[in-house]
Amino acid sequence: MDRFERQYILPGFGHAAQKKLCEAKVLVVGAGGLGCPSLLYLAAAGIGTIGIVDGDKVSLSNLNRQVLFGQRDIGKNKAETASKIILQKYDDIKVIPFPIFLRTDNIIDIIKDYDLVLDGSDNFPTRYLINDACLILGKPLIFGAIYQTEGQVAIFNKEGQKSVNYRDIYPTPPTAQEVPNCNETGVLGVLPGLIGTLMATETIKLISGYGETLSGKMLFYNLIDHSTYKIELSKNPESDLQRPQSVADLHKMDYHDFCGISAQLDWDTIPELLEQNLETVLIDVREEYEEPKLEEYPYTRIELSQLDNAHESLYKFTNILIFCQSGIRSQQAAKALQEKFPDKNIKSIAGGILSLTIRN
C-alpha cells in the first residue's frame, strides 16, 4: 500500500491521474493564509515538484491563519520554513524555496520551469505581475482572494492567451481605500484555510483532468452563511491593450505606478535624509504588537488606522518617510497623505522593515 492509494482507487481518478500529479510542477506564490493550506494539500496529493515564493518572515499575527507555522518559526523566512516543514512530512517530493519577492526582473526565470502557478499573494501589483507573466509564458493561473468574510477562486489562462485572465475581471486596479488588507479589516483564519484548500482542489483537478474546473468561472463563498455562487467570466477586449505583450515589455512595466501606488525609497537613502534635513520624519504605520522593531533610525509610530488623526502633527515636516512590515500599508499611507499634503515629499520605503532585516 502506498500513500496515494485512497486517491487512485477513487472512481474516475486512477493511476493515470496520480501519475500526472507526481510529474507536475506547481509554483505557489505566497506562503501565507492562502498558500499554507494549498501547500499542505498539494504536497499530500503527491505533486512532484512544488516551488514556494515568499520574501516575508513569519510574525506572531500570522499564526491564526498561516497554519504551516508555529511560534518557534517567528522571524524565519516563510518560503524556506514551509519547504522544510513539507519535506519533513513527505520525502518523496521535491520542494524548492524562493525566499524573495517577485519583481519584473526575476519572475520570468522563476515561473518558466513550472506547469502552472497558484497565486496566494496579497497585493495588487503582484497579482497583475503574476497574471501578465503567466499570459506571456502560457501558464495556467489558479487565483484566490479573501476580504473579511468573503472569498473568491478562479482559474485564469487555461488555454494560454485565449481564455479569461485577471485583467479581464479587474482591468483597473482598485484603490487602497476600496480594498484594505486583513491587517486593517481582520480575518478569521478558517476563511483563507477554506479558500486555499479550494485553490489546491482546482490545481489537482486541472492537472489530473478529474472533474470540472473553474476555468472561465469564479466561485464566491461567504463565511457568514456559507452561501456560494458561481459566475461565468468573459473576455474583455480592451484588457489586452493595457498589459505587456512580451518579456521586454514586462521588464519596463511599473506595477506600483499602474496600481496607483506612490513612489518608493529604499533604506540606503534614509540615513542621509534624516541627518541632513531636520524637517524629515520617519513613520512606522504598523500596529504596536508587530515585530521586529526598528532599531537603526529614530522614528514615530502612527498606526495606519490613526493616520487621519495625526495630520496636525505632520504639518511641520517637509519630508515624510513611511514604513510598515512589507511595504504594502506604507504605500497606502503615502498615497493618503500625499492627497492631504500635495506640497510635501512623501515616500513609502520599499519592502518595509523586512527588506531591511533581509539586507542586514
Automatic annotation (TrEMBL):
The keyword Zinc does not apply. One of its GO terms (molecular function) is ATP binding. Keywords: ATP-binding, Nucleotide-binding, Nucleotidyltransferase, Transferase. Pfam families: ThiF. InterPro entries: Rhodanese-like_dom, Rhodanese-like_dom_sf, ThiF/MoeB/HesA, ThiF_NAD_FAD-bd, Ubiquitin-activating_enz. CDD domains: RHOD, ThiF_MoeB_HesA_family. Its EC number is 2.7.7.80. It catalyses: [molybdopterin-synthase sulfur-carrier protein]-C-terminal Gly-Gly + ATP + H(+) = [molybdopterin-synthase sulfur-carrier protein]-C-terminal Gly-Gly-AMP + diphosphate. Residues 302-358 form the Rhodanese domain. One of its GO terms (cellular component) is cytosol. Homodimer. Forms a stable heterotetrameric complex of 2 MoeB and 2 MoaD during adenylation of MoaD. Belongs to the HesA/MoeB/ThiF family. Catalyzes the adenylation by ATP of the carboxyl group of the C-terminal glycine of sulfur carrier protein MoaD. This is Molybdopterin-synthase adenylyltransferase. It comes from Mongoliibacter ruber.
